[in-house]
Amino acid sequence: MIFDKKAELNVLINLAASDRKVADRESKLIQIIAKANGISKEEVDTMLNNPQPIGNISSLTNDEKFEHLYHLIQLMKMDGQVFRSEIVFCEQIADKLGFKKAVVGEISQHVYSDPSITADRDMVKQKAIKYLKA
Q: Which Gene3D superfamilies match (predicted)?
């Protein structure tokens, strides 16, 4: 499978649904990310109603892996509550992306739930890259 924006969005949808309910703020962030990537609201609604299993994400570049992880953690924090199931899901995805699971705790302190508050992404990226498995 070629990794694409819809596949990335599907992972975010799986995270949003990992606590059994997609919160309004999570749904809004998913819609914002989708719109920025040319995915229609109708397509997102369909994806939200029927999340697909997560495919092969091993072929991503390190930059793509970081971006994916960053959005994943941002979404986890979006509803103002972080559930253990969401942390575990993020750790599982981080592991699939080739990171050590501890990356989630390390970079989540630098990622904000409000997309208008931006962290120093280069600094966060450098921290994350240190957690890539050899």
A: TerB-like
